[in-house]
Design goal:
By secondary structure, this protein is α/β, with parallel strands linked by helices. The chain has three domains: 1-85, no CATH class; 89-178, no CATH class; 181-326, Rossmann fold (3-Layer(aba) Sandwich). The protein is built from eleven helices and 16 strands. It has helices spanning 38-51, 64-69, 95-102, 141-157, 191-200, 212-217, 234-237, 253-263, 277-287, 289-294, 311-326; strands spanning 2-10, 19-22, 28-29, 55-60, 77-84, 108-115, 126-129, 134-137, 161-164, 170-176, 181-185, 204-209, 225-228, 245-248, 270-273, 298-299. The strands form three sheets. The protein has a six-stranded parallel β-sheet, with helices on both faces. Helix 5 packs across helix 11 (311-326) and helix 8 (253-263) crosses helix 9 (277-287).
Length: 327
């Protein structure tokens, strides 16, 4: 079952466009609430699986409604969730198509028909659009045309919103922002908690190092890829433009300088180098004109200043900064 938050009011754990998966045995991936609604969602999901028809559910936890549910969560919010069965014979549509866009590199947007009575649109019909293509699920050409403008607005704004259109149809237009990718250049012991914590936060992490012994030592099971590379060949061996953030942390001046020289012209949102300001300044000075081009956007020291003094707390400070930048 695909559970999609399509509308909220007040204080809620998740917002419109948030999705989670619920298995037939009650297991779930992702949270709609802090755990207080998941049990009820699981029960409802089982009933919906029997009918094979999607349904919308409203949880109103505002004021006295909170006591009515007996949850005592104190969120004082209203949250509406759309539940859709995912069938293997239908290739798990529409989630498989949504997941494909989330795992890609190009932003996309989706339109999902939540309420359809009298509109002529099919309940659960979905349109997915990128800047150059569209994929329609259970929609004909005329229905696609009805949803395109709202989908394109979500693509431009990267915001999700629920709209009731002139036909009376309730449509969730949601942004599909690709899963972020992090490149860690350096496989020393202090990279292990960074990679593990980044993966737990949902980043796809690639680790690269020129020292085979560091790679062989392990500890990077959470990474998507682990590579042994020759530093001067970094730009040839790894597609640097595909990463949202790069952390240079080989702890070797020559190697770090070689990496930074190849990152100077890469349009990545975040490039950081581990170490104090004097070390960063030295690396940039040694790079000459290339260093001057990189200087305005090279972050160093990396991370938020939280007094970090251990590999784990340094990883926390770096990821807090990356999350803040991303959001």
């Amino acid at each position: 079952m695909l559970a999609t938050v399509y509308e909220t009011m007040g204080s809620t754990y998740s917002k419109a466009g948030h999705r989670s998966l619920i298995a037939a045995n009650g297991d779930y991936q992702g949270l709609v609430s802090g755990g207080c609604l998941e049990g009820d969602l699981g029960e409802r999901a089982n009933r919906i699986l029997e009918t094979r028809k999607p349904a919308a559910i409203t949880y109103d936890l505002r004021d006295e409604a909170d006591d009515l549910w007996g949850l005592g969560v104190g969120c004082n919010g209203l949250i509406r969730v759309f539940l859709q069965p995912l069938e293997p014979e239908q290739d798990y549509a529409p989630f498989a198509a949504i997941a494909q866009r989330l795992m890609g590199a190009e932003p996309a947007a989706a339109a999902t028909v939540i309420e359809a009575e009298g509109s002529g649109l099919p309940l659960g019909g979905t349109l997915i659009r990128t800047s150059g293509s569209s994929e329609a699920i259970d929609l004909d050409a005329a229905q696609v045309g009805q949803l395109e403008a709202g989908c394109d607005e979500a693509l431009r704004s990267r915001q999700s919103r629920y709209v009731v259109d002139d036909s009376g149809a309730g449509i969730l237009y949601s942004a599909l922002v690709p899963v972020p990718r992090l490149l860690v250049l350096g496989a020393g012991p202090d990279a292990v908690p960074l990679v593990r914590m980044a993966a737990e936060l949902g980043w796809l992490v690639t680790v690269a190092d020129h020292r085979q012994a560091y790679i062989d030592k392990g500890g990077f099971e959470a990474a998507e890829r682990v590579r042994t590379i020759d530093p001067p060949a970094l730009a040839r061996e790894i597609e640097l433009e595909t990463f949202d953030a790069v952390i240079v942390m080989s702890h070797h001046l020559t190697t770090d300088r070689t990496y930074l020289g190849q990152l100077a012209t890469v349009a990545t949102d975040y490039v950081g180098v581990l170490g104090p300001p004097a070390r960063k300044a030295r690396l940039l000075d040694e790079l000459g004109a290339v260093g001057e081009a990189l200087r305005p956007r090279l972050k160093g020291p990396v991370g938020l200043d939280i007094g970090a003094d251990s590999p784990e707390s340094i990883a926390l400070s770096i990821l807090a900064e990356l999350q803040a930048l991303r959001n």
